[in-house]
């Protein structure tokens, strides 16, 4: 057994208690909060989201499919059920937007209630900002979604996937209006936002605007994202500000990305398969994020349920418990130890998987690509 | 529009008609039957199957998760809902086996009823054969599962994943007892079965034993599997025998496999990510299978719903219709044509994806591995 | 010390003796004969041969450059100085051919006299055979070169780089006329010659025509060439024939070659750099050739002097001595043991170099190519 | 013909004239000066230099081999014959040092006299500096070599391969004593010297110390070296200083190097083959160096004669003439246009070679390595 008796009882106690606690109480007590993973990319592969549009109408068209994915993340160890409301604003979805936001809240709450998870209402950057920096109009779009979240009484709020810190600040300012904790993540690289504002400066502005949790999500793989987080952390320290750190990177390896991330890679979005992270890559990422002081650790596009479970398994010693889905997973491949082939049994150990250099099976393909810009 | 008005009405007519037809009527009329995809590997990643054991207890423990996966394959275009009964025999599951088989049949039938799909009861090689070639005992195990399938009135039967033709022949002999069509697939390479019996000879023996459909599944990627099929076809032709051909390969690239397939690759089973096929790889595979004369085309481990959809989209011109999930997919990436970045819009065409050489994002990893044996 | 006192004196004795011995006496006594390496490709890079033409006019235009390369191979351990007369026949060189052959013989003899080496007169396939199978005209071309070799009194003869066994047989028939030992090598793959005559059959015909030494050279890398040799050996055994085996492969890795070899690879001839073998690859090749029973071991295009030295070093335990150029080479990198950096010192051992998987430094390039045909 | 009549006569005139001109007159008139290439690594492969020691005793032991390499570079287009005196100081060679320096000067002068080349006396960093920053002792070592160079009347002086700018400054100070032009190159990356002094600052100090030509050599591949040069150029501009720029990088691709360059790569020094640059890579490098304003362009370890020829061919339009060795080279592969195979003929053009992505032929190897530190 990974975890001894004593830790288990502590874990039970903790679990019971955390149900009564909000996101900030958890983070402030030093607890690790595990985010959820990929919805758009994963549901695209399951047949419920259209690539190119990337809108979440599935919450009303195919609620079973969305519920099922929430359940998988919950079982994998997620402590947050984020409403599947990415781009579900009036500018992207017309009249459907309101129903979509409401249905998404209901699904998230329904599943969250089956485990130790909070519900987070999620908004993202608008389609408008890059053409018209019209603060009033953009804030109105944010406020429309927030009204649904407030009505459905979500536990906290996430503003995510912002390329420009100015728009992210506007989002925080709106979200603060409902008196719930606000987390905000930008989709930027260590080089900074689209106007070259550094990650450190972005973090400072967002905390000053009222965010309690700041970080990055999407667009870049785990390694790049952790570099950006490090710069945010340093920026906050220099400014004498405090905030919780949050990271939700791609589940893809993207060392060859340019400043705008994986969208510019020639494989985006229909040829990313060979870049997908293994569970062992994610354990390494989770450990590094933890060591950097990040306590809200999840994933974005490409993070399948088993990747979330890998975070929960890596940090089980610190947290004191394993997630439900670990019933179906031998830690570090241990369930292979009964295989009939001795060389497969030999893979039932940590050293094997930590050191594996997995082949692509594609000898006519390169290992890196040049981004289109 | 991919398909004109005329084809659509033909398609409607055909759909209506095929609902009344069994697997052999469909194949004999020249129709393409699309199989389903990966259950064990896919549900492992979703948290419901344990790698190493690879047993389908999820049908009773988490029926929603299994139903959802069936639904995804149905929407993607599968014409067969295979019962999730792999290894669900008494030797692997003890007393649970009967409930598992029954529940799996119910789930498959429930979903099949929502579309144009048949239910196939599935058995596979036993854990016994390699130690004791005890025909009576092995046939008894097959017969136990068959009794459930007959009771639940499946439409036809699939015996799959056989390494030894002798055991596969026994399976066919048992399955024939229920007077339903029998399909049989072996998990062998062009080098033949574990006793070096050639694919051609294997096919001949299986057809002589009573199989109406023969082919290969699992263990090898699409390219290798099609080579094996070609040898089976030639063997049958030389012997003057007729049978329908069926192929359900891995959704992974495995040019470096040895005779026993992907199990011996160092990446099996927890580091196969970078070998995963793209949808475009699968369109190519579907076209080649079709050109070889194969009419039952599906997938095995690693075939996600969108891979099955890729088969249905590639063969839509021949079949006259697209699957339901193509509502959420622009053919050849066409839905990218409204992207804000011109270089992403430029990816909205067939030539782009057909010629893409996707990078692994892993410059420290090789492109091929040496199998462990 | 690699070799003890006793072996050294045996070696001296042997060296003295072998000077009096011809190629067949050496091979029949079980001695390893080390061939030389690359002339055309190497002198192209040094500026004395024109790619595309691939003719050896350098022997008259720049004799110093040719002499120097002979010297380097002699120092590296070559026991054969092959005249640089590839394509130096009337069909390729017009009136120059006679002077070129004579000068090439003089250079080879001059350098051979400085060490333990024999002079071999070399001819290759004509430019005519593929268009006109005119035996009389082709034999006349071979005989013209042979007359110069006889006049210059070479020690034995090599007919090399034949794609068609029929033309190779004609070459052997002509060369036999001068009563010198004849070696013959074809540039074929395990699939056989251009008319699909198997390597085994080719070897049989060549030995029946009078060749004492048969094998392969050029067109394919070490691994492929050794496979072809194995088939030749089996063919001779089945036919109850005896001959010495000889192998002189490319110094490039070509696992992706088609039937006609490296010429069809897209990198030929100006982009082959990243395929070049290391010295350690060549030690492995030399050991395998020896284990297969090959006793005339050398190289062709891409075999630089240090590759020949690697053969001599690998087989030093069997031969009892090291070549002169090993004064400038610590076996298995041992001369690194005084490097100032400890991690470079750690490379001064066999295990390090045997297990190194050298990176290409080219992450945007594939590891294999598709041949042009 | 690449170059018309008019240019040729201009070229002749220029050639005649430049023979009367020193290095600075040439550079000041805007002429491109082509350096030479690899001696240690190249002569190691030819059997005359011992890896690990890397000393040039070959100039007395095997002068023919050294003369031949000088000749190859001269024919390839080098305008500088640098004395093969790397590490030929008393600390590395004991009593032999004086003879080696004298013989190296004689060889360089002998070959330079056969073409349009100057003789440069070369020194490099000592083995002492890293342990004892003993200015007097180190300067004495430099002065000893300089005395031979002065006696042999070299045309100018090169101080190369310095990791620390302080020692490089000492070298320049000594070399200035003989009233000849001084070039100095450091073996540093864009990150700066071993004490983190930036390339810009290094360049400034070296020019202030009296160097007329500054730049980088060795340790890093062409792309990295040009980045360092750019920083040097910017540093000089900011300081309002003027100097000629010089670049002599590795002929290997090293994008994965750390701060100390290729020595720390696991392939150093016996497994670098697959990193070797093609001639087309070098044409690209030469063009970029020229566009950056560099006018002294050569190479270091791994630069074979044909790489130097590639510089001369790329810059032939600017210089007005081709080097002698281009007699044996069809520009951009043009000599392939008579090949018997049409697909090889199709390679006789610039677009083909510029766009080729050469495969390594090594599917079990990665494309990048992690440096040992």
Automatic annotation (TrEMBL), chains A, B, C, D:
It comes from the Eukaryota. GO terms for molecular function: S-methylmethionine-homocysteine S-methyltransferase activity; zinc ion binding. Its cofactor is Zn(2+). GO terms for biological process: L-methionine salvage; methylation; S-adenosylmethionine metabolic process; S-methylmethionine metabolic process. GO terms for cellular component: cytosol. Pathway: Amino-acid biosynthesis; L-methionine biosynthesis via de novo pathway; L-methionine from L-homocysteine (BhmT route): step 1/1. Residues 21-315 form the Hcy-binding domain. This is Betaine--homocysteine S-methyltransferase 2. It comes from Pongo abelii. The gene is BHMT2.
């Amino acid at each position: 057994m990974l975890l001894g008796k004593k830790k288990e009882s502590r874990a039970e106690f903790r679990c019971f208690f955390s149900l009564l606690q909000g996101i900030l109480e958890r983070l402030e007590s030093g607890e690790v909060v595990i985010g959820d993973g990929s919805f758009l990319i994963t549901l695209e592969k399951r047949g419920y989201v259209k690539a190119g549009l990337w809108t979440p109408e599935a919450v009303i068209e195919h609620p079973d499919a969305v519920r099922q994915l929430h359940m998988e993340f919950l079982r994998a160890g997620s402590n947050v059920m984020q409403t599947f409301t990415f781009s579900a604003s009036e500018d992207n979805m017309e009249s459907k937007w309101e129903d979509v936001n409401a249905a998404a809240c209901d699904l998230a709450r329904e599943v969250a209630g089956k485990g130790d998870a909070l519900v987070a209402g999620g908004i993202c950057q608008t389609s408008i900002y890059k053409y018209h920096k019209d603060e009033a109009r953009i804030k109105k779009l944010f406020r429309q979604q927030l009204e649904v979240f407030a009505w459905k009484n979500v536990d906290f709020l996430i503003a995510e996937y912002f390329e420009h810190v100015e728009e992210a600040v506007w989002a925080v300012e709106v979200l603060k209006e409902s008196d719930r904790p606000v987390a905000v993540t930008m989709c930027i690289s260590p080089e900074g936002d689209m106007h070259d504002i550094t990650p450190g400066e972005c973090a400072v502005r967002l905390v000053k605007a009222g965010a309690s949790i700041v970080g990055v999500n999407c667009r870049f793989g785990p390694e790049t994202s952790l570099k950006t987080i490090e710069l945010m952390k340093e920026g906050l320290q220099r400014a004498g500000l405090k905030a919780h750190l949050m990271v939700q990177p791609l589940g893809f390896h993207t060392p060859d990305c340019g400043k705008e991330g994986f969208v510019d890679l020639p494989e985006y979005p229909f040829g990313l398969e060979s870049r997908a992270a293994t569970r062992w890559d994610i354990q390494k990422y989770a450990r590094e994020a933890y060591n950097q002081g990040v306590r809200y650790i999840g994933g974005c596009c490409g993070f399948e349920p088993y990747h979330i479970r890998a975070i929960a398994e890596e940090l089980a010693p610190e947290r004191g418990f394993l997630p439900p889905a670990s019933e179906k997973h031998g830690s570090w491949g241990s369930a292979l130890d009964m295989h009939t082939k001795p060389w497969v049994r030999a893979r039932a150990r940590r050293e094997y998987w930590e050191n594996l250099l997995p082949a692509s099976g594609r000898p006519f393909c390169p290992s890196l690509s040049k981004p289109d810009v």
